[in-house]
Amino acid sequence: MMAVVAFALVAACGATYPGSELLGRWNADVRAMLAQPLAEPYTALTLAIVFSPNYTYSIEVRAIAAATERTGPGCTTSSMFSGGTWAVNVTSTGRWLTTGGTVSGTIERTGCNNAADNFARRAATERELVVLDGVAYIVSDGTLVFAPSGPLGARVFTR
Fold it and tell me: Which of 41, 82, 103, 105 lies at 20 to 30 Å from 126 by C-alpha?
């Protein structure tokens, strides 16, 4: 799946080259940011994005379903997505992050209350892929904030 996207980047001061402020792992407690009733199905929902110096990125998602859920009660679903590439273009209007590459991933479900709901690691379907897509964000004081209009919604990531 080819994902080519552009979104504005407001960079932190002191970066050694465009985009260097993104390098490393950014973590978010997504459940804490969801409005009810969206958060109810989960006892935990975390997301991490890793920007590497070789201009690739990966995304990790971990969701633990509440024991009272009808679908997959008590299950821990872990997903890992990689293959995306990133670059920063500096223009007179700011810094723009573009992403591309062929993103692929794996998904598994373990620890379910009903053993039949578990499944071994398998390739993620296109519908299950998490791809950065048209998201404006700001990096400031060790915090990465995505704009509310993007596919990740309004999310605050920290180191």
Answer: 41
